[in-house]
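FAQ: What does a ligand-bound record look like?

Like this one, built around F7E:
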Amino acid sequence: MPKIALITGVTGQDGSYLSELLLSKNYEVHGLIRRHSTICTERISDILDDKNFFLHYGDISDSSNLSNLIREIQPDEIYNLAAQSNVGTSFEVPEYTAEVTGVGTLKLLEAVRQVNPKIKFYQASTSELFGGIPETAPQSEKTPFYPKSPYGAAKLYAYWITVNYRESYNIFACNGILFNHESPRRGEDFVTRKITVGIAKIMAGKQEKISLGNLNAKRDWGFAGDYVEGMWKILQHDNPEDFVLATGETHTVREFVETAFEEVGIKIEWHGEGVDEKGLCSKTGKVLVDVNPQFFRPAEVDLLLGDPSKAEKILNWKRKISFKNLVKMMIESDLKKF
Ligand code: NAP
Ligand code: F7E
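The answer part, i.e. the structure of the complex:
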C-alpha cells in the first residue's frame, strides 16, 4: 500500500518541492489549499494532473475542516507547512500571524489526537526561534530560544505545543528547525528573491535599482529542495525527535547582492554608510542598490548560523547545493522569466 501524506501549505515554496519528492517516492499526496479569488497553484502546476495528487479546500484556522479532512484522507504522515511566513509582515499582522502560524498548529495536532494519534506529524519550525542571542552561534537543537518578531513568537508556541503533544499523548510529532532556504520558487517578498528578480528586471531594462533594508543581517541560506528531503527523513527516523537543518555557513545580505550581480557580470562597489549606503556598478558608476528604511524591521535578527551536525549524523542528511550555486540557480531562472 502506498503511504498517504497530507501537506498543509502545499501551494508554498516548500509544499511544492515536498509534494514532488513524496510523489517520486510513490506516496499518495493530499494538499490543503485555501480558496483564492485568483489562481494560486503556479508552484504546483506541473503535478496538478498527477493521479496520486489531490487538493482539498480548507484553512489551518478551521478545526472542524481539519478533523473532517484527516478522517476522510486517513494520512500516515502530516507535514504542517501552512503559515503566515513573512517575518516583516508579521509586525503588521501580529494577531493574524499568532492565529495561523501559532494556534493553527494546535488545531491540527488536536485533530490528529482525536482522529488518529498514530499519524506522524512534522512541524515547520524555524531558525527565527533563536532570534536575539547571536553570541550563541552556531545554533543547534540545544541553543536557547529568543524570538524577535510576532512570527518568531508564534512559531515558538507551535514548537512547544508539538513537543507537548509528543510527550503528553505519545504522538510521533517532530520539529524541523530549518534555517533560511530559498529557490527559484521563493516568494518575491523575501530578500533573496527580491534581489534576483530585481537584477533580472534591471538587465531587461524594466527596473532602475533595488531598494533594500538591513544589508548587514547574516543568514544561513540553503536550497529548499535539499531541505524537504530532510523533512521527510525526520519522519522516517525510528524516534520522534527535533532536528536543525542548515548549511553551517552564513552570509550578509550585502554578500548575497554582490554574488548575484557577479552572475550577470557586474561588480558592485559600495559607497556611503547606513541609510546612505549605495551599491554602484564598478564600470558605469550607476546606482543599482540603495537603502530604504521602509524595509527595516522594528526588531532584527542579526546573525543566523546553524549547526546541522545532529541531522548529518543521525539522518545522514546534508545539503547538496552550495551558496554560490543557489544564487546562480535563482538568477538563471529569473533571467529567463523576466
Ligand atoms: P510560503 O511559501 O510562504 O508558503 C506558506 C504556505 O502556507 C502557502 O501555501 C500558503 O497558502 C499557506 N497558508 C498561509 N496561511 C494559511 C492558512 N490560514 N491556512 C492554510 N494555509 C495557509 O512558505 P515556505 O517558505 O514554503 O515555508 C513553509 C513553512 O516552513 C512555513 O511554515 C514557514 O514558516 C516555515 N519555514 C520556512 C523557512 C524558509 O526559509 N522558507 C525556514 C523555516 C521555516 P497560500 O498560497 O494560500 O498563501
Ligand atoms: O529576510 C533583511 C531582513 O525576509 C532576511 C522566512 O522564510 O527565513 C525567512 O525569514 C534578512 C532580514 O527572511 C530586505 O531584514 C534587507 O534580516 O528574506 P527575509 P527572514 O526574515 O530571515 C526564516 C528562517 C523563516 O522561518 C521565515 O518564514 O534580509 N532584508 N532588506 C530584507 N528582507 C526583506 N524581506 N526585504 C528587504 O527588502
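Follow-up question: can I read anything off the structure? Yes, for example: Residues 94-115 form the longest helix (22 residues).
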